[in-house]
Amino acid sequence: MQIDTFRDIIHWTRAYHQQLADCLSNSSTGQSSEKARILLDYLAEHESKLSDALRAFEETDNLKALNTWVMEFLNKKPIKPLNELGAPFENLSAEEIISKIEEEHSQIVELYKFLASRAVATPAVDLLEELAALEKHEAMRLSSASNLLGDI
Description:
By secondary structure, this protein is an all-alpha fold. The chain has a single domain (6-150), classed as Ferritin (Up-down Bundle). Helix content is 74%, strand content 0%. Helix 2 runs parallel beside helix 5 and helix 5 packs antiparallel against helix 6. It is elongated. The mean pLDDT is 80.
């Protein structure tokens, strides 16, 4: 995917979360551990809802922020292509799954922080900070829910 603007970043992130949801869901059927299967199903639903939430950011009327160019920033901080998201979740333990998902969210938060540190336009910075906060909040929710699953 060619990424030129912040709108493209949001679109990429939304698609990334949806692909992650699909990957988690598909991995659930091959998982032998019931605990890991429950976790995969929960995470798949969660990632799908996060993808839906990001759609609202794509449809915002903040055109100045959405149309801000980002190409020169990404040359120094490349984005992982969607097709590299092929982790074999069906072969991972619940703890490994949680760790991998937390790592995915952390990388997206770091991308948003990096872009915010390089952006000059205040609307773009505000948008990136909102997106980073959303990703961080969702990662904390996942961690909390995963801890509850560990108590089962």
